[in-house]
Amino acid sequence: MKAGRVLVVGAGFAGAVCARELADGGCNVTVLEQRDHIGGNAHDRLDDHGVRIHPYGPHIFHTNAQRVVDWLSRFTEWRPYEHRVLASIEGKLLPIPVNRTTINRLYGLSLDESGVEQFLNSVREARDPIRTSEDVVLAGVGRDLCDKFFRNYTRKQWGLDLSQLSAAVAARIPVRTNDDDRYFTDRFQAMPQPGYTPMFERMLDHPRIKVRTRAAYRPGEGDFAHVVYTGPIDAFFDHCFGKLPYRSLRFEHEHLGSEQFQTVGTVNYPNDFDFTRITEFKHLTGQAHAATSIVREYPQDQGDPYYPIPRPENESLYQRYKELAQQRHDVTFVGRLAQYRYYNMDQVVAASLTAAGRLLGRSDE
């Protein structure tokens, strides 16, 4: 498809990246977004007090993919930012992922790196085969650290025990024997300097792109050569095999008169309260402001779909929808909801660049 009229459903990362690539490739693109704003869950804005917040929870950009950095850098300047997270455990705020500082402060020890490795080896539980997230965590840090940091947090986040989740969930969480307290270790860690929304505005600012917000997608609407669909794949097919399970979130935003609320961007609360974590946005954005704004996150079953729930039976159900999708040569399905995958933002960008490249017939995709 070298040119033509294309409908893109959704103005988050997947939709915006595809729209821009297709427009640059000569297509006339209409973007439909059911919300009243662009940017999807990465949308940010100034709150009533002038503090830049992420209404749908914190979005921290990090990647090892230079192609993704180069592409996004066309639309934004960057502010270097390395995210740090503390966990509230037994009255202490301890680094997460677990590192040497975590173990020494939690247990009153003074171990060096080799001592931490020996300690971990002494508490790890052999699990073979590794099938669940519980297997991953017990094999990585043993039962006490598992119960203090991971088990209850997982129950809150997913509504399931570690033993009920696929291994891939916990496999994302490293364990360190040194004092590196960065949440991510990717080569590129930064935030869009003016914010995510200005970046999306630049992305969609193209004479061949028309954006319609508050616009629901109706199959068969308009005369389009192709549809790029970024919404829930089960909804596209009218849930004909049943609904795919998603975890949702409720956000409790609060503005505070103090200049700073906590010492790092995010503090996790695995064992206390109904919320999972508190994020203070000024750490992320670097904004100078006399006061501050925070958000508490409450996971729940009902509401907008945020996280595909990684369990084998859900993957099997998704595969049935994927088979239907593969039969639709007039529709491309891309993004976290359309592919039922826990994508990071950079992974969504990479997948969208590849999808758009294939539609444009580029041989390097």
From TrEMBL:
InterPro entries linked to this entry: UDP-GALP_mutase, UDP-GalPyranose_mutase_C
Alphabetized UniProt keyword annotations: FAD, Flavoprotein, Isomerase
Positions of the UDP-galactopyranose mutase C-terminal domain: 148-342
GO cellular component: cytosol
Superkingdom to which the source organism belongs: Bacteria
Cofactor: FAD
Molecular function in Gene Ontology: flavin adenine dinucleotide binding; UDP-galactopyranose mutase activity
Catalytic class of the enzyme: isomerase
The keyword Isomerase belongs to this UniProt entry's keyword annotation: yes
Family to which this protein belongs: Belongs to the UDP-galactopyranose/dTDP-fucopyranose mutase family.
NCBIfam families in UniProt: UDP-GALP_mutase (TIGR00031)
Name of the featured protein: UDP-galactopyranose mutase
Record organism: Caenimonas koreensis DSM 17982
